[in-house]
Amino acid sequence: MRNLITDVPGILVGSAHDETVKTGTTVLTADRPFTAAVHVMGGAPGTRETDLLAPDKLVEQVDALVLSGGSGFGLDAGSGVADALRAQGRGFAVGDVHVPVVPGAILFDLTNGGDKGWDVNPYRALGVQAYDNAATEFDLGTAGAGYGAQTATLKGGLGSASMALPNGVIVGAVVAVNAIGSATVGDGPHFWAAPFEKTGEFGGIGPSPTYPAGRPATKGTSRNTTIGIVATNAQMTQAQTLRMATAAHDGIGRALIPAHTPLDGDLIFGASTGDVACDDLLYLGHAAATCMARAIARGVYLARSTPFEDPPCYARTFS
C-alpha cells in the first residue's frame, strides 16, 4: 500500500503545475470508465458536468475527474483532459463520435501572489499535461491542484490516503486543501485530524492537549474551497457511490475548522471501479471519511513554500 488513492486497483492520478502562475491541476482516471457521483456542501462551488452525475441522469460512468486551481478559468482543464481522452478513442459513444465525460471542480487561488496576467488560459494545457502524467505514483503537498492552495493559517496542498478493509475492499482519497479555515489547532502544530492518523503520516505528534475557544481563524472570503475525490474498488450503484461521497464530507469536518461555509465550495466526488463485492456499505462510508481527514492533514503537512511566502508552510512554521 502506497497510502495513496491509487492503491485502489485501476485508479491513476496525474498532476501538473505552473510555477509562475502558482497554480495546478490534478486528474484522476482509470483504464476504463468508472461509476461516479458528487456531493457539494460548500456554498460557492465551481463545477463542470456535475449535474450529469445525479443518479436519475443518463450517464452513470465517467472517463476522468478533474480538480483544478484557477477558479472559473480552471474549469478549462477539463476540456484539455477531454481532448486527450478523445485522441485515444475514449468517451460516451454517440454514433461514430466519442464524447469523453470529464466532470471537474475548481478552487480559488487567483490572489496567491502568482502571475495571473496570461494572454492564453493555461488550464487546458495543464489538464492535458496532468492526464499524460497519470500513474500510480504522484506527488503530494505543493503539487497539482494544491500547488497554489492556502488555508487560514498555513500553506495548503494536495493530500492523499488509503485504507484496506478486511473484506478486500480498498478505499482512498485525494484532496486539494484550500480551506477557509485551518487544518491545525490554534497556533500549535497539532492537526484536527490527529485522532485518525496512521503510522505518523503527518508528524505523529497526536491530538492537541488544549482546544481554543471562540471564533476560529479564517482567511479572505473569496479565496477558498476544498475539493476532493474518494474512490473504491467496491461494486456500487451510482446512488451508493453518492452516499460514499456524502459520508466522506465528515472527513472535511473532522480535519478543517470551519468547513462547509457559505464562502467556499467544498465538494467531493465519489468513484467506484466495481471490482469487489461489498456487503458493508456502512463501514465503507466511514472509511471514506477517515481517508479524507487523513489526506487533508497530509496535504498541509507535506506542503513546501518559499522563504517569504504568506502563509508559510507547516514545515517552516513548526520545524
Which features would summarize this protein structure in a list?
319 residues, alpha+beta, L-amino peptidase D-ALA esterase/amidase, 9-stranded mixed β-sheet, two-stranded antiparallel sheet, 5 helices, 11 strands
Describe this structure in words.
- The chain has 319 residues and is of the alpha+beta class.
- The protein has one domain (5-318): L-amino peptidase D-ALA esterase/amidase (4-Layer Sandwich), CATH 3.60.70.12.
- The protein is 21% helix and 25% strand.
- The protein has 5 helices and 11 strands.
- The chain has helices spanning 76-87, 123-132, 238-255, 281-301, 314-318; strands at residues 11-18, 23-40, 47-48, 61-68, 92-94, 97-99, 104-106, 157-164, 170-177, 227-234, 267-276.
- The strands form 2 sheets. Strands 1, 2, 3, 4, 7, 8, 9, 10 and 11 form a 9-stranded mixed beta sheet that branches. Strands 5-6 form a two-stranded antiparallel ribbon.
- Helix 1 packs across helix 2 (123-132) and helix 3 (238-255) packs across helix 4.
- The longest helix has 21 residues, at 281-301.
- It starts with 10 loop residues before the first strand and ends with a helix.
- 58% of the residues are buried.
